[in-house]
Amino acid sequence: MFEQLTQLVQQYGNEAVVKNNAIPNELNDSVMKETGSSLLSGLQKMASEGKLEQLAGLFQGNNAGASSNPVVKQLVEQVSGNLGQKFGIDSNTANGVASNMIPQILGSLIGKAKDPNVKGFDVADLVKAISGGSGNSSLLDAVTKYGGQFGLDQNGDGKVDMQDAIAAVSKKGGGLGGLLGKFFKK
Q: This protein's superkingdom (predicted)?
C-alpha cells in the first residue's frame, strides 16, 4: 500500500512540485514525501474521528478524485497547511500543490482498489493502512456496512460478513481475513 502511494505521489508530483518554480528544487523530494505522509495521516485521522461513512463514500461512483468530495477537501486543507508550516511555502502555492495532487492520487488509488484486474493491490491493504494497521472495530463495522462498495463481497451475496472473510482467507491466505484475524486475536 505504501509503495503504491509513493509511486502515485511521484507520478503526480512531477507537474505539481518538480516543475513548479515557486518550490525550490532542493525541497522537491521533501515536499512530495510530506504530501504522501500527510495524505495517509489525514485518512487515518478521519477514520479515528469516526468519519467512516465519508471514507466509504470515496469508493462510491467516480468522485474520489473530485475536488468537491468532502474527504478530498479536508485532505487538501490538511496537506496544504502541513506544506506551508513545514517548508514555509506560501499558502497559495501550498494549496495549489495539494489541490493538484490529492484528487489525482485519491482517484488513482481508489481506481486501483476497485479494479479486480490490478495485481498486487488489495483493498484490504488500503483499509489496514487507513486504520493504522490495527483491528479498529469501528472501521471493521464500516467495512461490513460498506464492504460491497470496497469490492469485499467475496461470495457475491450482497453483504460483507464472516463468510466473505473465510472466502478471502481461502483465496488469498491473508487479506481481509488477516485483518479480521487481528481483530479477533486469532
A: Bacteria
- Reported as a single tens digit per residue, the pLDDT across 3-33 is 888 899 999 999 999 999 999 999 999 999 9
Q: Name the residue among 36, 33, 68 with its Cα closest to residue 54.
A: 68
Q: How many CA atoms lie within 13 A of 71 on its CB side?
A: 30
The span from the CA of 110 to the CA of 38, in Å, is: 17
Cα separation of 18 and 1, whole Å? 24
Alpha-carbon distances of 184 from 51, 64, 85, 169, rounded to whole Å: 23, 31, 40, 14
Domain limits, the chain: 2-114, 123-183
CA distance 176 to 80: 33
Cell readout for 33 is: 514525501
